[in-house]
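Subgroup meeting minutes
Present: P.N., E.W., G.H.
Scribe: E.W.

1. P.N. recapped why we're keeping a running log of single-chain structure predictions: easier to compare across weeks, and new members can see raw inputs and outputs side by side.
2. G.H. added today's entry (307 aa).
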Amino acid sequence: KNYKELRNHLLARCELNGVTGVLIVAPEGINGTICGTRKGIDKVVTFIKSLEGVGELSYKESKIRLNERPEGAFFRMRVRIKKEIVTMGMTGLDPAKTVGTYIEPKDWNALIDREDVRLIDTRNTYETLIGTFKGAVDPKTESFRQFPEWVAKNLDPKRDKSVAMFCTGGIRCEKATSYLLQKGFENVYHLKGGILNYLKEVPEEKTMWKGECYVFDERVSVSHGLRVGTYGKCRACRRPLSEEGKKHQHYEEGASCELCYSEYTEQQRQRFRTRHRAIGLAKARGVPHLGSAARSAKETKKRARAW
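Output recorded in log:
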């Protein structure tokens, strides 16, 4: 009920324990990704479990190798308050009560290999560009809000008797399967734990995954075994960026890429350049640019005590 009041409590607890990342708090629950030491993560998870109204907490872990990303997966900690964890904009959906059938990663290949199963990638275009499952349909949505419209135009409960869906970590699909069940679809499945769980559990030699999986942190993408992938990130639009993309005439580090050059004005690109220079100067001086690390330890503790 008082989910909006949790923002500062969560932010202070994470910063005090040296944890960075993004947490989304909504009436339906808490979701996100955080990064830190073993001790720091354990303390934050314990705190979240202690919150009133939090039921069974499900989460996945992966390790970042220091030689791959010594600075971690995030630059700072953010806690966002939203009406929905993943915004579809449809009322009356409650995945806690009505949800599709969970399929374990070890059983996923057999399901999607069936001819009677329609396989849907529920992620957005910038995510599907760099990887998806063999045979998956890409709705080519720019936001999850567009998914219901795509369903209305492309899926039919009388024709599509079995529908399987997947997303990055499994949360988006819970809402997508709930929506399809509400619309009269009967056999609706989704990958438990999402693509990340599949890449962690299924051996690479048995995979039906093609490419890399976009993730919402500074790793940008991961491959099997959750190894850090080969993609960089456009610092203007945040889309994944390949080495080939960096050769495009419209790519400018920190300011634009092939995909976003026409989306921004020159004035906006100039602001991106200024921000990129500031980050570069901070890095050259060896000082943090963002988040709690940019404040003194005394300030961070004072902020934590206030909550």
